[in-house]
Design brief:
Shape: elongated
Strand order of the largest sheet: 3-4-2-1-5-6
Distance between the termini: 32 Å
Number of strands: 11
Number of helices: 11
Helix content: 40-55%
Strand content: 5-15%
Order of helices and strands: HHHHHEEHEEHEHHEHEEEHEE
Structural class: alpha+beta
Radius of gyration: 30 Å
Amino acid sequence: MPGMDPSLAKTACLFLSASHRFLSFAVAAAWCKCSPSLPSFPFLLRSFLLNPLRNFPIARLEGSHWSSLASLQSREGRKRSSKGDMHPGPDMIRIHILEGKALVWNYADAWRIREEHRIVGTLFGALARKPRQNVRLGLPLQLLPEEARLLLENGLAILCKNPASPALGEDTSQEVAAYQKELEENYQEQFRLAAEQRKALLDTLAERIAQGRAKKRQREEPSSKLAEPSFVLPRDSMMVQLPTERINPGQEEVVDWHVPSKDWPYTGQPDHEAHYRIFRNLWERGFYVTSGSKFGGNFLVYPGDPMRFHAHYIALCVPRDTPLSLCDIISAGRLGTNVKKTVLLCSADEDGTVAYTSLQWTGMQ
């Protein structure tokens, strides 16, 4: 940044990596006094509060420093994963496989994936009370193969498969009878609670009800009798529990993601390996990375949480030394410019090195 001593910038980034926010605020105030070219302190404070460390303007001066921090956090997880530690612990995130798709059904796991590990995924389940709309979606959370592999490689999750459902024609009468019995018990319990709540409400309004009945008797004939209304809870009004994961999951089968299989066919595929290296490199730089299919790319790269920031880059994964037609380059550059994003041509080597080339379309008059 112009007008700022490089040694001061490096020291500032080291302070930003500390866990105490008070130190970060103090360093931010010092920067504002040292360099007139820096933004104002309220702007820095607001940026830090929105997304601490990752989106702090000075934190980007040392990209390699943040990359080393991310690598350091996941070093132990990669050691466990390389040793083949497949025993699911209580803190392990469970990623369920269904026809090659990685799904997360547990809400606590979905929260941890986003808040602690900067993995976004895509919600595509219907909400229980609004199943006919698609503006707000719910569980399950579907992960990209690259997102799932990052969690698996860091030792943060396990890949599991639920037992197959019983085939058609098998005897399931006992399961159906048990479900019907549980449903009836649930209805009787709700009926009892609703009757008690109605009785308590009538007791509080007893005086007003008695006055109203007295007036009504005066207007009607003496022979007419008021029937005591009976309470009935319609079965259509019964509340039904919709679980977000299997109540009785049975014996889960852990799938080894190191070996390609019918359930997890991605390991070893050249395209997946190249895309994963690029995905991991961007993630280690502190970015949020999501699918970029809606903008014609492989990934969308965000400086912070996508709920609060727009994507800055459209990442296109291109094999190294592969010729690109001029039309493809022009179309990618103009597309990125029209949506106010920079196109990144990303190429990865087998050793994990990633090269980035940015494209921006500029018109000349």
